[in-house]
């Protein structure tokens, strides 16, 4: 009857969820090392956020005052960068197309004589076949 769940004490139930052995030395060392490091990095992140907000609060009036100059300048720079990138992309596309075309022509030049010989043989065979057929028909007409 002691095995039934309602007969167990609450401390026994809690102990059943806990691991039987404690953390290893390397795990404890990792926590001891990384916890302060994480805290320091979190503090630095907070300081940087605070500095950014203060800097933005100070610089916002300057951005508002100089916005008639800054906005067109930013747009001009953005368009110039876009133009350079587009030009480069088109240049690379053109070079790769020319390279492909040259390789294609080189491959075709090597196989062109073979293709011409094959076409010549087919024409000769076709002409020879037609000549034989015409000769056969003429002999059939002559022999009644």
Jot down its keywords.
144 residues, mainly alpha, 2 helices
Question: What's this entry about, in short?
Answer:
With about 140 residues, this protein is mainly α. Helix content is about 90%, strand content about 0%. Belongs to the oleosin family.
Write up this protein:
- The longest helix has 118 residues.
- The mean pLDDT is 83.
- The chain is mainly alpha-helical and 144 residues long.
- It comes from Sesamum indicum.
- Pfam families: Oleosin.
Itemize the secondary structure elements and their pairings.
Blueprint: H1 10-17, H2 25-142
Contiguous low-pLDDT stretches (5 residues minimum) are none
The total tally of domains equals 2
Taking all Cα atoms into account, the compactness measure Rg is: 44 Å
* Strand portion: under 5%
What is the first-to-last residue Cα distance?
Answer: 122 Å
Helix fraction by DSSP (H/I, runs of at least 4): over 70%
Separate helix tally: 2
Largest sheet: none
Summed over residues and divided by their number, the pLDDT gives a mean of 83
Number of DSSP-assigned strands: 0
Q: What oligomeric state is this?
A: single chain
Structural class: mainly alpha
Based on CA inertia axes, which overall geometry fits?
Answer: elongated
Order of helices and strands: HH
Transmembrane segments: 28-48, 53-73, 75-95
Organism: Sesamum indicum
InterPro entries: Oleosin (IPR000136)
Modified residues (N-acetylalanine): 2
């Amino acid at each position: 009857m002691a095995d039934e769940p309602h007969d167990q004490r609450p401390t026994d139930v809690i102990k059943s969820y806990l691991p039987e052995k404690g953390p290893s030395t390397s795990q404890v060392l990792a926590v001891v090392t990384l916890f302060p490091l994480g805290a320091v990095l979190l503090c630095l992140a907070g300081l940087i956020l605070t500095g950014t907000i203060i800097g933005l609060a100070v610089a916002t009036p300057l951005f508002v005052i100089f916005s008639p100059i800054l906005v067109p300048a930013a747009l001009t720079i953005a368009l110039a960068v876009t133009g350079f990138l587009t030009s480069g992309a088109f240049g690379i596309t053109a070079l790769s197309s020319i390279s492909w075309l040259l390789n294609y022509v080189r491959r075709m030049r090597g196989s062109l004589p073979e293709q011409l010989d094959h076409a010549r043989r087919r024409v000769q065979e076709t002409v020879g076949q037609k000549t034989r057929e015409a000769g056969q028909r003429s002999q059939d007409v002559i022999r009644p």
